[in-house]
Specification:
single chain; Undecaprenyl pyrophosphate synthetase; six-stranded parallel sheet; about 45% helix; binds farnesyl diphosphate
Length: about 280
């Protein structure tokens, strides 16, 4: 399913178009989530300060979002700032990331509009500095009518705290409606997650080679395909998103079932075999 009127393949670079030509357009994932990692290493390899890595990382966010919007990707969810980043990074780096986010939103709103991108956020965003929250709300409201890719930034986000928040809100609902906890379903939990309005990710990309989930979308990635690249986030571009989608399209998703052509079990033949010892 594509968001309406957003396929703009002619705007891809010629290199991107060559990769796109290898894709099955009807099997573009609905939702891609990305753990953007490696900003610090990118800077370190060039003997630059870490904040320059984050700055280049913000540039990569915009370029990848624009490619996503051109191919009609409905949902793109980026891990921009974790709860752990907030608690464990030096205050100077956290403050820099907050300023960068504000500047990023201010300077890229026009490009979001040109690309028909709708902005949303997940996480304990009410704990972010008020001026950052104001800017976030401003960008969300300005892009609310856009019908292309929904870019969700996970900010002050943690998968476990999301589940805690969902349980708290579900418990309050149970209390209010006097229903029985024994009737809780997976659907009820889904309804109380920050991501209740979106489908689960089909593909999770992690840059910089680490084989970790880092507390990202823990509930939602139960059946998500994972693609890890050694490339550091500031070097990640639209073409690499397309390559990850090409890899995804070669996978077979079974959701706990059997692969096609693995053969029906002939129950009668099995019974005969067992009876014959
Ligand atoms: C990891 O790099 C990345 C982050 C801390 C989060 C991602 C942040 C950005 C891409 C920049 C800002 C984004 C927006 C939307 C304005 P790292 O510092 O952990 O890298 P390292 O593991 O190499 O040290």
């Amino acid at each position: 399913m594509y968001p309406s009127g957003t396929l703009r393949i002619h705007e891809l670079t010629s290199e991107e178009r060559a990769v796109y030509a290898t894709l099955k357009p009807e099997c573009i994932p609905e939702h891609v989530a990305i753990i953007m990692d490696g900003n610090g290493r990118w800077a370190g390899h060039r003997s630059l300060k870490r904040f320059l890595g984050h700055q280049q990382g913000a540039n990569a966010v915009q370029l990848v979002t624009e490619t996503a919007s051109r191919i009609g990707l409905p949902w793109l969810t980026l891990y921009a700032f974790s709860l752990e980043n907030n608690l464990r990074r030096p205050r100077a780096e956290v403050n820099f990331l907050m300023r960068l986010l504000k500047t990023y939103l201010e300077s890229n709103l026009g490009r979001m509009m040109d690309n028909n991108v709708r902005m949303k956020y997940i996480g304990r965003t009410h704990e972010l500095p008020p001026e950052v929250q104001d800017k976030m709300r401003w960008a969300e409201e300005a892009t609310a009518g856009n019908t292309g890719t929904t870019l969700t930034l996970a900010l002050n986000y943690g998968g476990r705290s999301e589940i805690v928040d969902a349980f708290r809100s579900l418990a309050a609902e149970i209390d209010l409606k006097h229903t029985s906890p024994g009737r809780i379903t997976e659907e009820d939990i889904h309804r109380h997650l920050y991501t209740a309005h979106m489908p689960d990710p089909d593909l999770l990309i992690r840059t910089s080679g680490e084989m970790r989930l880092s507390n990202y979308l823990l509930w939602q990635i139960a059946y998500t395909e994972i693609f890890v690249t050694e490339r550091l986030w500031p070097d990640f571009r639209g073409i690499h998103l397309l390559e990850a989608i090409a890899d995804f399209q070669r996978r077979e998703r079974r959701y706990g079932g059997l692969s096609e052509g693995s053969g029906e079990v002939d129950e009668e033949a099995e019974r005969v075999k067992i009876a014959a010892g």
